[in-house]
Amino acid sequence: MSYQALYRVWRPQNFADVVGQEHITKTLQNALLQDKISHAYLFSGPRGTGKTSAAKILAKAVNCENGPAAEPCNECVSCRGILEGSIQDVIEIDAASNNGVDEIRDIRDKVKYAPGSVRYKVYIIDEVHMLSTGAFNALLKTLEEPPSHVIFILATTEPHKIPLTIISRCQRFDFKRITAQSITGRMTLILNETGTEFDEQALPIIARAAEGGMRDALSLLDQAVSYSRGRLSEEDALTVTGAVGQRMLHATARAVYEQNAAEAVQTLGGLLMEGKDPVRFTEDLILYFRDMLLFKMAPGLEESMERTMADEDFIEMSGLFAEPAIYEYISILNKAQQDMKFTNHARIYLEVALVKMCRLHIKAESSASGQEAAGLAEKISRLEQEIQELKNRPAGIAGEEAAKPAPKKASRPGSQFKAAVPQIEKVLSEATKQDIQNIKSRWGNMIGYLNDRQMRSQAALLNDAEPVAASGDSFVLKFKYEIHCQMASDNKAFMDSISTILNELTGKPYRPLVVPEAAWLDIRRSFLKKQKEEGVYTPPADGQEEDVQEMEEDPLVSKALELVGEEFLEIKD
After folding, report:
1. Residue 408 pLDDT level (bands cut at 50, 70, 90)
2. pTM greater than 0.85 (yes/no)
3. Fold of 6-176
4. What fold, for 244-359?
């Protein structure tokens, strides 16, 4: 064939032509100038990033008649012979089809012979990870101590499949993906050299589709030039790569902003009718919103945008969207992209994602309105309760209280739970030691019952709870924290479960009365003091000492009572 593909015609012939791998070419050039050539190299990296090209350039450089030099001259007999493939001392082997032990043994037998026409015999083994285990073992000793006239260059896209014993005997160079800017610059040079007219917007589209591979980019460029009619346009590049134009991305984003789900789905349907891939369109949308977020955060970093150009429409769209909305859009699209990998109906997932994005603001507004309404209703209810309390007060008391300043009462922060004091005092007056021991002895079994019945959260709620007094039909359940007390009181099913389980364990349907620890101490102290004043005092059924007596006997507490009064004093055991 008289025609050759662009990636073959424009294969790099010097280190300077290897785009995007300056960290490797600089190291190799310094080694050539200092005559520090290693006996084995390992070139690893993604496809189309210049591994084999760099290996051939290195083979020419070490054998160049005008060396040592940082670049091969490409004019001497050695360079031209290696370039044309006529010198037998530079051997390129495809390990994918020559991966057996016999091929490696043949290499091992021939390395001892000196090169015939150049200084070094160079073995370039491409896709070396395809060698079998036996082949690697056969290569091992030769690779470690080859003759002084032999250089091995191994190239691979999957270095993790190569044994560490092989890697440790080589100088490893990792080729990285080539940036879109570097690929665009190389394609611009090629098109200018070939005299092909093109639109500047077309090349970044091809560069992004290549995903960091120069060979892929030149193949797509070759195809796009063949598709175009005299001039490579943006539409030609979009058609060949299957990408979506920025104008359609603007239209989709505007439909999302206007919450027009029908318009967004219709735009998607038109693109799919043109043969666009829904997965690729999803990726384009993600990159579009990513570039929008980057532009909003740092407008000066236009060169970091991967999918869009900062034209007037893009700048206008960036001003419409808030940052939290962009985060949500990217999250929704990313979730849809993951779901597309496991379905044959990728279009449906993308349509659902677009509808979600269109309804996102409506949902947020509804939620905010609902929260405001709930807060307003709570305030109204609290005001009505305060008004009712004021109405229920006697007129004389209300006037007297209004006339004198209200005393400052010591209050505990966050004290909201109202304990059922009359019922608790009734339990205390009827409490027996037998009932409280009956409940305490089976309390652990009751928590175990809750765990067995998949009520672990309720069982965990009882970890800080303790039964402290009991009568024939009720018992007082003390909670360490007021929030837990409130949670238990609000959960009627939970309270009924405690009574039911205790009935099964003890034979009595004890009804729980919950109380916070601080309130329990006050209620019990007040009850005992009242009993003592009335002359009907009996020792507590739970066996504890009388709190009032301790309060009176403790000199520190007595002094505090004398100084500030009982109203402003809180005593904790």
Report:
1. very low
2. no
3. Rossmann fold (3.40.50)
4. Zinc Finger, Delta Prime; domain 3 (1.20.272)
